[in-house]
Amino acid sequence: MMQNQDKGRKSGRRNQPVNAESAPLQTRRYHGSFSGGQNILSGQKKKPRVNPRLVSGILSLLLTLAASAFTFFPFFRVQTPVISGSTRMSAEEITYYTGLRNLPIYQVDPEMIRSTLLKRYPEIRDISVSLEYPSSVNIIIEQRNPLIEWDFGGSKFWIDEDGTVMNENLSPEKQVYVLADSFPGAKNRADRKIPAKFSRKTVDSILHLGRILPEGKTLFFTYENGFGWDTDTGYRLWLGMNDTALEEKLAMAESLKNYFLEEEIEPDMLSLEFTHAPYYRFSE
User: Fold this and answer.
1) pTM here?
2) Residues 118 and 168 in one domain
């Protein structure tokens, strides 16, 4: 009897409803996957794997074909550069010195072209080189502007505002003309080696003297006396190697001119190179 009651209690508890909030959650583990290549959790198909060797091979082939096209196809080779800013240098001449003719565009080095032309042509102030695919090279040249014409015993050269010496006159504008037997900075009277560049001080001095040069007069330069010109009273006025204390020297020259007239002195030359020690000389 007791055993039946116990069974009844057990069976009664077994039939009681379960509280969902208090009952522990149960999970099931699944291994493997269903047929058809579907992932159980995501339900998506697996992406096929890409062979990296195959991709690398395709890219290498494409790069090889592209390099071959740039190298061998005439469409990608430079024939003649486009030159602007210069009327003296032709495209053929620049092509010869830079080796641009029939060169693949990817082998063109703009900096090499710039340095080569600057060394070859001292009259060039600056150069800009740009590439334009498939085969164009654009070269813009800025020429120097000569401001001084130096007549060195029949041999002429020209000087720009930076002091650079040029063997040709590339400007139609009027320059300060200097008739000379030497040049500033010469080692001795027989020195004939013309420097590649004059100092900025020398250039500024020549331009200054050129502005105050009397109308119709020639600016001279000698190794012994520097710069000067012939005066209306018949003697040559020397002012030294540059325009230092030029205003003071010109005022002194005017005073001495009046003195010569009053004293009826007719010198051959007057040197004011050193303002503290001016001197004049009669012709021999």
Assistant:
1) 0.67
2) no
